Amino acid sequence: MVSLIIVRHGQSDANKENIYTGWTDSHLTKKGENQAKNAGNLILNNFSEKIYDYHTSVLSRAIKTTYLIQEELDDLYKPLHKSWRLNERHYGALRGLNKDDTKLTYGKNKVALWRRSYKEQPPQLDQPDSVVGRYKNMDIRSMPLGESLENASCRVIPYYLDNVVPNLLQNKNQIIIAHGSTLRALIKYIENISDESIDGVEVGNAEPIIYEFDNKLNLISKKELE
User: Fold this and answer.
1) Catalytic site residues?
2) pTM above 0.85?
3) How far is the C-alpha of 64 from the C-alpha of 217, rounded, in Å?
């Protein structure tokens, strides 16, 4: 058997303020840091096998969560792979807006579709963000204007297949520390959840999920740590 652990980052400033962030950087709150440390302890106490590789996005809230989990597991020396493909879903023109305010502006049913459905896209940006800083090596054509969960899946799943699956097939346990929507996309793929049913899937902050697979990566079990 081989295992994949997935963890959503701890509470961020934007989570606390109920603001859409997506690709906007937002740091962990003190509560979020404590949640990340607790996630590390949960893994330590419930998973005795070696973790070979850590994977995360290029956003601070996920990276800091990863470091704190690694510290709790005495794994700071382990390989850490960062990719924009594991970034949160891009919320387009909604980013920076309060989620409750958008319900008043657009209606709660429309906002629910933007947030929870598989195919519905949020309002788009007029033009992509500049390719600078953490995105300086990206092709401007890869910068989204706003993504549905399906759009985000088109970058998350190829990353998983190209960078995580080969290690799992070598019987090397892996951990992905990322974001609510992009982990929902991964959960949908791993558990073969329908487009309609993914609406009801939630991923809590810093609540590890452990998947166990056989040597052909057929799913054997799922364990949620709280």
Assistant:
1) 9, 88
2) yes
3) 29
